[in-house]
């Protein structure tokens, strides 16, 4: 692939995402020679800053958050020389006039019109403002080379997501729009596609004939911290289920795409979302559990209750935990429940997908047989294991479940790129495979809308509470019965 020069613009350069994720990712791409020889990073934000101090702060971010640890001074100096700060109000014309002249100067210096990437690391209220300015100032008008990257949340419900899609697609072609869901860039998540579609041994079993149920859990230890202002209006359904967990579900449940190509993969995923059985209001209260954390301890560190968090209403009914059961109405999955669960301030950080196979139909052993399970650990453990029954050595026929394991640590020496490294490189290379298409985002909103609507009508109905540092409310466990004794948890 030809490496075009890249003019990378980050709107929201003083924000947390830039410091924690974007700059460390770009820096790692740079030191591992994935960035084109000619590139420049234009950092735009409202605040007036001293450029040297700004860069030092970015360096501190790299030192703290990069998977490669501390930056090497000479490499950082090379990298930092390509960064410039542009103070500007996102709502003012002058910001874009000076940005345009900077981008054009860079392109002139390389005697080539390369790729332009505009990353929206900004609060949702600025997305349309910036998009409009890029459009009218003709900063992002080349349909092949110019791209925008939009962070979540993409809308706050189906209507706002549709409106935003309409707004963006009027100004840019769909191919220029990269809607990020960083879970799709995670190495272990990308590997699920390889696991499913490059190993024919599992495919014949991957359906209602052999699978009893599937669990998808994303448990977090972190609480909402300083993000109360955003989170209290969003909640776990909008923050995690509508995007990250739905995407995991799509990868697990999709049909094999016709080719490893962006559109084929995105078509296959969208079909899954469209086949999810719509929730009726009574089903919402039966099959969806929502809860909020109270004070407690996570790893021996005391945690305050959600209602005491900064910028959270003391009477808030926002959920910090959701567990739900959903069904997919298609020939592959008819009758197989999918259980999704996510929460903050929980006992452990653990993102795991469990595929539980059916019991063997004919029992010849005395011992209870534990059904086979395939466990795909996404983080922090990176492994795939298959649980099967084995005879305990000895003179009796005694069976116990054992595990066949694949761990990244044992199998590979390569270090794993961060999700943002993979995704930023894809944007530069024009590969949208791991990004959300307009119809995908809308289909995912469509699934969760009946739940959000039912909750809105009765905000405190069936809001459960769980102590920080636990695995969530007991009601979430009841959902699973009679399929499994409990949610799978890392030992
Ligand atoms: C973000 C959510 O999209 O994902 C956060 O807004 C959440 O609330 C985060 O903590 C989880 O991402 P990761 O990569 O740490 O699992």
UniProtKB/TrEMBL annotation:
Its EC number is 1.1.1.49. The active site is at residue 244. It catalyses: D-glucose 6-phosphate + NADP(+) = 6-phospho-D-glucono-1,5-lactone + NADPH + H(+). Keywords: Carbohydrate metabolism, Glucose metabolism, NADP, Oxidoreductase. One of its GO terms (cellular component) is cytosol. The keyword Oxidoreductase applies. SUPFAM superfamilies: Glyceraldehyde-3-phosphate dehydrogenase-like, C-terminal domain (SSF55347), NAD(P)-binding Rossmann-fold domains (SSF51735). NADP(+) binds at residues 89-90, 152. Residues 193-487 form the Glucose-6-phosphate dehydrogenase C-terminal domain. InterPro entries: G6P_DH, G6P_DH_AS, G6P_DH_C, G6P_DH_NAD-bd, NAD(P)-bd_dom_sf. GO terms for biological process: glucose metabolic process; pentose-phosphate shunt, oxidative branch. Pathway: Carbohydrate degradation; pentose phosphate pathway; D-ribulose 5-phosphate from D-glucose 6-phosphate (oxidative stage): step 1/3. Catalyzes the oxidation of glucose 6-phosphate to 6-phosphogluconolactone. Belongs to the glucose-6-phosphate dehydrogenase family. This is Glucose-6-phosphate 1-dehydrogenase. It comes from Chitinophaga varians.
